[in-house]
Amino acid sequence: MGALHRLQSRQCSSKNRPDCCCGPRLQSVMETNGLEWLVVPMQQLVSWGAAGAMVFGGVVPYIPQYRDIKRTQNAEGFSTYVCLVLLVANILRILFWFGRRFESPLLWQSIIMIITMLLMLKLCTEVRVSNELNLKRRSFAAADSKDEDIKAPPKRSYLDFDLKYFWHWSKFTDYMQCVLTFTGVTGYITYLSLDSFLFVETLGFLAVFTEAMLGIPQLYRNHQNRSTEGMSVKMVVMWTSGDTFKTVYFILNQAPFQFSICGLLQVFVDIAILLQVYFYSYYPQKPASHTAHPVSTKAL
């Protein structure tokens, strides 16, 4: 009887080993392999979603602002210096990409942001000029500040870098000239200095540091006015959530260290503005005398 039992055991081990001895383990492996068809596409979908959020997420806050300006035909609540800062930052970031390749979504984000800021500039310029009583033209490359109605050729050309009128020109083409000039000069310098590690790293730091400083004027304005009246709290919350997501994306995707450091700086600035909202709401301050400023220097 014992010999018969040993014979049956050997037959089970040799012929029916998967069913008798490795059944549970094989079943576990099959279940794991069966989930791969679901897990892998889900991971890919999450990755595409994060990349899409990085590319288009930065321009979302400007969509309601664009629609509001177009509806009211009033651009006083939006500072065109926001466009200037973001144009400079994203042009420098694209140039940095030629020296040190980073994630493609970050490159596309810069391209989309540049297009968005140019559209904002075009709308703001058209609205402002249509509302101005003074028709005297201010240009980037002008001649003796001729009126727009005068078609006479200019006597002399110069760059209108007077701080009083800089970035307050009367035609969108003047902004385009300035942007193209800046891109051409910085692009040429970058081309000559691509072999310099120090230059490339400095260029990357300047690109993200410029963008990180975008909230500082708003922070200073709130402090100067001792109030956050006229500033959209929802928009600041959107800045904070967007900058937090962006910083986490930088860290997880091992983007150049400049991106992570300046992303953290942006989050701190956003949190500081939110603290101002809380402080000035519960502890109102006497407004200091000040000159009228645009409602926001970052975005509303």
TrEMBL record:
Q: Which UniProt keywords apply?
A: Membrane, Repeat, Transmembrane, Transmembrane helix
The UniProt entry's GO biological process terms, in alphabetical order, are:
phospholipid translocation; retrograde transport, endosome to Golgi
Q: Which InterPro entries match?
A: PQ-loop_rpt, SLC66/Scramblase_ANY1
Topological relation to the membrane, as annotated: Multi-pass membrane protein
Instruction: List the GO cellular component terms.
Output: cytosol; endosome; membrane; trans-Golgi network
Tagged with keyword Hydrolase = no
Cell location: Membrane
Organism ancestry: Eukaryota, Metazoa, Chordata, Craniata, Vertebrata
The keyword Kinase is assigned to this record: no
Q: Which Pfam families match?
A: PQ-loop
Protein name, per record: Solute carrier family 66 member 2
What are the TM regions of this chain, as residue ranges? Answer: 45-66, 78-100, 106-124, 172-191, 258-280
